[in-house]
Amino acid sequence: MRRVVRGAWGPREESVETLAGRWKLTLERLTGLLPTVVSGPGEVGTWRHIRESEPFINFQPDEASLRGVLRDTREADGWTDRTGTRLTLASAGETGWNAELRGRGGGTSEFLLQTMMIAIESPDDAEIPDVELLTVLAEVWAPDFGDVSNDDVLDALEDEGGFGPDEPSVGWVGYLSPGRAALVPDGMTAPRKELGVGGILLEIAPYGNIESVLQANLRLRDSGALQPLPRPMERTAL
Q1: Parallel, antiparallel, or unpaired for β 98-105 and 114-121?
Q2: Where are the extended beta strands (E) located within 109-187?
Q3: Tell me: the pLDDT tens digits for 192-229?
Q4: How far apart (Å, rounded) are the C-alpha atoms in residues 64 and 66?
Q5: Are 109 and 232 in contact (CB under 8 A)?
Q6: Strand ordering across the sheet containing 98-105
Q7: 84 within 8 A of 109, measured Cβ to Cβ
Q8: Sign of torsion over alpha carbons 229, 234, 178, 203
Q9: How far apart are CA 81 and CA 95, in angstroms?
Q10: How many Cβ atoms from other residues are within 10 Å of residue 116's Cβ?
């Protein structure tokens, strides 16, 4: 079973030190929620830094190591502070478990969203704490919007709802920043959780209930809660 926990936001300039701190906290909290993801034989706590056109390297994700790989990215040819600093980490855990994290943060582009994605592969019968995983992403990265979804949900939103790849949307669990939360329509009965960092989590539907997810997205879009950030983007969140 595969699911993706995602978050996106507008321009927000951040130092290597700040980004490394966000990455470290994300990995620590993910490991606490799903220790089987990062506890494969002989590689407890080890992550792989995935690099384009180069062999991956194993490393322990302490803050100094994370600062190092992020700094190396910024020193590479072609890097620009507008697009942000990318990092991809992967870990093979116990049988049937693995995770991949892809992030682009610290950028100031007026047209390119900054993003964080956690893709998790798990056995079909595993219980996954979706709400808690999205809470981690929301609290650590302070996105404009985020969700937990999979390919079936994304295909339905695109094919039946007309949502573009970069447009705000929610899966069976969604996060909305304070500005978006204020536009959630009256009468929407999805259970909600207010976060200390601001914004809300919405438990839209059980896993696999694609039609309910689609209808919720259409209602949220009609209310303005899923309107894209105006381009050129001048702020991090709606």
Answers
A1: antiparallel
A2: 114-121, 145-149, 173-176
A3: 999 998 999 999 999 989 999 999 999 999 999 999 99
A4: 5
A5: no
A6: 54-59, 47-51, 85-92, 98-105, 114-121, 2-9, 145-149, 173-176, 200-203, 192-194
A7: yes
A8: positive
A9: 39
A10: 23
**pLDDT (0 to 100) of residue 74:** 87
DSSP 3-state of 200: strand
User: What single-letter amino acid sits at 125?
Assistant: D
Taking Cα atoms as reference points, which of 221, 105, 127 lies closest to residue 174?
221
Whole-angstrom distance, CA of residue 64 vs CA of residue 49:
14
With 0.85 as the threshold, say if the pTM is over it: yes
The residue length of the chain stands at: 238
Q: Which amino acid is at 238?
A: L
C-beta neighbour count of 135 within 10 angstroms: 22
How far is the C-alpha of 170 from the C-alpha of 216, rounded, in Å? 8
With tokens 């447009």, the residue in question is: 167
- Digit-coded pLDDT (tens) for 49-82: 887 766 677 777 889 999 998 998 888 767 788 8
